[in-house]
Amino acid sequence: MISDEKFVNTIKLIALKNAIEFDNKIKLDVVISKTFSYSKFLATPNGNLKDYIPDIKTIVSELEPLSLENKKTLYSELLSKENDYMRENDKYGKDRDRSQTHVTNHENSDASRESKSKENILDFQLPDLSDAVKGNVVTRFPPEPNGYPHIGHAKAAIIDEEYAKKYDGKLILRYDDTNPLKEKVEYYDAIKDGLDWLGVKPQIIKNTSDDIEKLYEYARKLIQKNFAYVCTCAPEVIKRNRINSIACNCVSNSVEKNLQHFNEMVNGNYVGDRSNDTGSATSSTAILRYRGNISSLNTAMRDPTLFRIIKDGDHPRTGSKYSLWPTYDFAAPVEDSLDGVTHAMRTKEYELRNELYYAILDNLDLPKPRLIEFSRLEFEGIPVSKRKITPLIEKGIIQRWDDPRLPTLMGLKRRGILPEAIRKFVMSLSITLSETKPSIEILESFNRKLIDPISPRLFFVKKPIRICIDSLGVETVEIKNHPTVDMGKRRVAVENIIYISNDDAIRIKTGDTLRLMDLCNIEILSNDALKNDSIGGDSNECVIHAINKGNEVSHKIPKIQWVSDKDMIEYTILKPLPLYTGESYNENNLVIDKGYAESYVSNLPLGTQFQFVRYGFCKVDDKSTAIFTHR
Ligand code: ATP
Ligand code: MG
Question: Is 377 touching ligand 1 by the criterion CB < 6 Å?
Fold first, then answer.
């Protein structure tokens, strides 16, 4: 068996990635060829690569039986391990730097080539599109401006954009703004800002409302061809008839009458025609319906609504000019077709509506884009839907759209998730139809890999416990901000009093030796932490007494972080947790950790990402508060 753990890890990553991309199937030949192309950049292992084929086969056969979900979880775990390897690699590089300057440059460039080639091999590709011609592919992302964009929208927008890129095509951003009751200027702007942040760059930006007159024209065409009729039945009657496959009397109105009524609807002076009412209509309202098949097994075909009158509330773009608005069922196919969309991607819940989409375009003799479905993104306990997020804000349960507990793009940004991580995550999900909820940890491991090299490593102690150290003998220590990336150093003033976190304090016993990272080793002389009720360092009493035991670094003694009494600030970390447990609201979805941080942290500009050693990655939210990103 290949002995190099790192090499085995890479083969596993290649195999798992292949399974994630191709519906849980691992193609052995692909894994072998990718491993070979990757290994060209490796200094080790040596020997004939063909000799590794049996090992690759074994690895693949061990991974194959895992469920797709388990494969994804394992993938994210191995990816995190990759970080550690890279760090190790850097460290060895640096050590060599000092001792053998003459080989370093050459070897370092090997290492960076290795990491580059690995990036490429481990980057996810989308499966090919049918009927895609390079240069001619047009995709579109059609959000409704009725809320703030979230990571589900990121999935759709990124897939749309990546396909356009893959085929040198075009991406259209089309605001699907056909319901004045729900849409606001604020939301158009939020969507644009969200896409800008994600780095999604549409070639064309437009609104469905720009085309409203054209949509009326196509509706008239449908009526003329007798594929649509005006219906004046009461909503509850329409609903009941649909369920029972009963056609209402409006279906037999003449084309002329339908056209006349439709034009009145367009002009906003429709007064109502109750002559055909089959039930207890109370308002003089009317809708345009598609003449489908009222007894179709596909309920979406049971004479669905194409246009409805919405009189209350001005439209954010057209004001009160129009009061007749198309439904999604009519606007989506006609707009896609008129926009020249070749491949229209949407989430799987629309699948039943595909028949209607194609039927409308057939009836209108318009070109038909190819519809492609992908699964809706959901996470356990986190609502990835405007319909669920907006009420949380409206009811004041959550105050801000950028609350780090929310999966809104603003929330993810505030929490410290990078747009590149979202893109990698979306690409790793690919366009599979499987309904499983991916683990948010996959997103986190992509993010960790990206932020680790840009995050200084600092100290924070939760629930501080005071230690007095005899014969410390230093007044300042200089600590590197990152062990392997050059981020400068910081100076920390120390005296004989320092703090460690309660979690560590309760584990140490009299006589233990431990290392205070970057400071010194200490031996514990006495420890009252278990008896201590007054956590927080208000009292000047020392809870733990210790003595300096020199500076020799040993792997055998535990290493813990600390904060100096002479150089600290009170600090708070907000830790977002899932909003729901199952169906019920999680009352404890925001943990507040309080403690001491080294005062250096107070100088970090807002938004800085850093790591609190042995705690996790954080992002500065204000002078004395950070938001926990992930471990
Ligand atoms: P919501 O429930 O958030 O209102 P929606 O589908 O009504 O969802 P739209 O603004 O109409 O939101 O969506 C624009 C595009 O984004 C659509 O193509 C939709 O399929 C896609 N989309 C929305 N939510 C998700 C999600 N959770 N996962 C994947 N794609 C999504
Ligand atoms: Mg919608």
Answer: yes
